[in-house]
Design brief:
Blueprint (H helix, E strand, L loop, with lengths): L1 E5 L3 E6 L6 E6 L3 E3 L2 E3 L6 H16 L7 E3 L11 E4 L3 E2 L4 E6 L2 H10 L1 E2 L2 E2 L9 E7 L16 H8 L1 H23 L3 E12 L5 E4 L8 E5 L15 H7 L15 H19 L9
Antiparallel strand pairs: 1-2, 2-3, 3-7, 4-5, 6-7, 8-13, 9-12, 9-13, 10-11, 13-14, 13-15
Length: about 280
């Protein structure tokens, strides 16, 4: 297999021994915040991301086709962390759905009263539920640089009106499906990021990862309270920890203490349990 791309968290290998050729998408245990890869891995993180993505790909397949081929014949060093998938021409937009206001979306709202050009009601606070989920795309920045908000019109200018509308509609449909399902496990999906590409026929296909703690904000419903920072089953804990450091959010990132790593691992495992209904079992245990 040949390494063709290394991202913040995932590597892509091309397996040309298959006909047609397949990609092997491998999720690492690396942790990234503010588009910076931190030097400390989180055990099981890649396996949890892979297992959750497979769970959601299966449950959203009626909404949009996805890139998954299967999980058979995975090299031993990637066991539990890899998926065989079909190659896609990835689209140059991060597709984000927001049902609640927090993070960079909240910052943009406080500055402009809107997020990605979508005007929102006055008086919203940290954690406010939005009147309805909104599509707030961003650019795809290279590793070490920051994504920038795009408006829907920006996406139209980049990809055309039909593709922009399709991306918006699919993003919101997948978000709603995930939010409804996660709610049964007591989880609020505050927002999520999706990536789409085109297959060889030109069809838009869902790729990368889906509704994981790396790509989404997950909050426990029983402690949700607008007006304050929410408890999160995702990497928001690491963002909050880093806020107390003398770090300018550029590479190199700081080493992460063992106790912070343990909290991240435990929260990822807990959200897996709540969403799937099955306790997390490490593939290396």
């Amino acid at each position: 297999m040949r390494l063709v791309h290394s991202g913040k968290v995932r590597e892509l290998y091309l397996d040309e021994s298959r006909d047609p050729a397949q990609l092997l998408l491998v999720a690492s245990d690396r942790l990234s915040i503010y588009d910076v890869v931190l030097p400390t891995p989180v055990p099981d993180k890649g396996a949890i991301l892979t297992a959750l993505s497979l769970y959601w790909f299966e449950r959203t397949g009626d909404l949009v086709p996805n890139h998954v081929v299967g999980t058979e014949d995975i090299p031993a060093e990637f066991a539990g962390r890899a998926v065989r998938c079909r190659p896609l021409e990835m689209l140059p937009v991060e597709c984000i759905a927001r049902g609640y206001l927090t993070g960079l979306g909240l910052q943009e709202y406080r500055r402009t009263g809107a997020v990605s050009g979508v005007t929102l009601p006055e008086g919203l606070v940290e954690g406010s539920q939005l009147p309805e989920p909104i599509f707030t795309p961003t650019t795809k920045a290279p590793v070490g640089e920051h994504d920038e908000f795009m408006t829907f019109d920006d996406v139209v200018a980049l990809l055309g009106a039909d593709t922009a509308a399709r991306l918006r509609d699919l993003t919101l449909e997948v978000y709603r499906r995930g939010a409804e399902s996660a709610a049964r496990g007591g989880i609020i999906v505050a927002d999520t990021k999706l990536e789409f590409g085109r297959d060889t026929s030109g069809e838009i296909v869902l790729g990368d990862e889906v509704l994981t703690p790396d790509s989404s904000r997950f909050w426990p419903a029983d402690s949700y309270e607008p007006g304050r920072v929410q408890f999160s089953f995702d990497k928001q804990y690491v963002r909050d920890w880093s806020a107390g450091l003398d770090w300018d959010r550029t590479a190199p990132g700081p080493e992460v203490p063992d106790e912070v790593v343990k909290v991240v691992h435990d929260r990822y495992a807990e959200v897996y349990r709540r969403i799937t209904g099955t306790p997390w079992t490490s593939p290396t245990a």
